[in-house]
Specification:
There is one protein chain. The protein has 131 residues and is mostly helical. It has one domain. Helices cover 80% and strands 5% of the residues. The protein is built from five helices and two strands. Helix 2 crosses helix 4. The longest helix has 30 residues. The chain is globular and about 40 Å long. The chain starts with a helix and ends with a helix.
Amino acid sequence: MRKKNKKINNFSEWMYYMLAYALVILIMTRAFDNFYIYPKYTFFICLLIVILLYILKKTVKPVLVLLTIPITALTLGTFYLFINLFMLKLVDWMLFGLFDLNGFWTAFFFSILISIVNYLVDDTIEGIKRR
């Protein structure tokens, strides 16, 4: 019985991230002209972006955070935003032509939103797991 609850918790955790990332992506596409998603398949591309961001968050990001601990400590955590920026540009590169993130400031603002969403979702999930 306990194993089944753990799977449900992992699935709900995944869903929280997917919904939060999708919301941020939709806000960014409406707010900035430099943030482009191919209009014919917007929903599917948005879903693909969200899945790629989640996979990168769980695989690549921990390695990058570990490798950049010294510079992150020197910049008092500000460099952490550039890790998110790198992951976004990596997704941009993977989805060449379907998703385009032009302009440094748009990408930087998007990475700030991703950091805020990561913090809020992680905090929400930890609160639910404590219950």
